[in-house]
Amino acid sequence: MSFLFQAYPFARQALFALDAEAAHETTLHALQKAYDCSLTRGMMHSRVSDPATLMGLPLLNRVGLAAGLDKNGAHIDAMGNLGFGFIEVGTVTPRGQTGNPKPRMFRIPQAQALINRLGFNNLGLDTFLANVSRSTWRSKGGIVGLNIGKNADTPIEQAASDYLIGLAGVYPHADYITVNISSPNTKNLRALQGEHELDQLLSQLQQRRLELTEQHGRRVPLAVKIAPDLNEEQIDIIAQVLPRHGIDGVIATNTTLERSAVQGMPHADEAGGLSGAPLHARSLEVIARLRQRVGAELAIIGVGGIVAGQHAAEKIAAGADAVQVYTGLIYRGPALVSECVKAMVAARR
After folding, report:
1. N or C: less crowded end of the chain, CB within 10 Å?
2. How many domains does the chain divide into?
3. In this structure, what CATH number is given to the domain that contains residue 207?
4. Could you confirm whether 139 is annotated as catalytic?
5. Within its chain, how far is the Cα of 243 from the centroid?
6. For 176, what's the count of Cα atoms within 13 Å in the CB-facing half-sphere?
7. How does pLDDT run across 280-332, given as a tens digit for each residue?
């Protein structure tokens, strides 16, 4: 393992002395600088092979980077160098927006958790696509997913227009596209998970994808990212609606509004979505319920609470085809990626 990977616990002490969002930006900047230097690029490089197929796409391994860490798609090559089998960037909205007021990201170290209410802060579709186009990771066999959302000031009744703009914009640049309808930090967004609303949205997206498939000569898989705070009936409805519109995959899950696991801890009452270790058990329940309902028809990407390799193996055992990490990286560092791959390989023996 790279010395830089082993040194992360020491770097974490310094990063945790900073505001959480400032530490996030500092880390991305440092990773990019290290990647841009040929000497340190090699010291960061990790590649653990466990070939798999996801939504028809060939993966180096089943561990991906979840959306949200690289919102503007500016660090795809640097992140890919850490050993991921696939990278998802965004969420991008048609127009750039600043997101919610700061501070808006809070650590809960006692629970290996994080609360954020960032609110889809990003530089907009044009900058996002310019960044993605400059990256070279896809040309080296890396798989890149592009995650699309709606602007905060777009009325929920007109949300489909933003998603259609995003779909058309990212289509030529994506290996797969994720429709994010489950962030708790954009007002009313989760209403799109209702049966009627989801039916209408996906119907329009599927029609537009058919046109884009003909235009570009390739069919790009579509995934939908859902919330963990759905009841069994809501999960069952989603499991019925997604195949109806030719959706290829579901990402389970986004962050949660539930706070029982962190009750009484500093920052536990901050508004926003909770991620990290407390989310793992609920994510497993949603994955298992989805797999029971959709059979082998849809790919499932398990995300939420993976802070150890064993958690990744448990996601696969529950019915996921692949996993994504984000908050676990903050607490464990990039060594978590290879640990997850190795745990999933060991679980199959």
Report:
1. C
2. 1
3. 3.20.20.70
4. no
5. 21
6. 30
7. 999 999 999 999 999 998 999 999 999 999 999 999 999 999 999 999 999 99
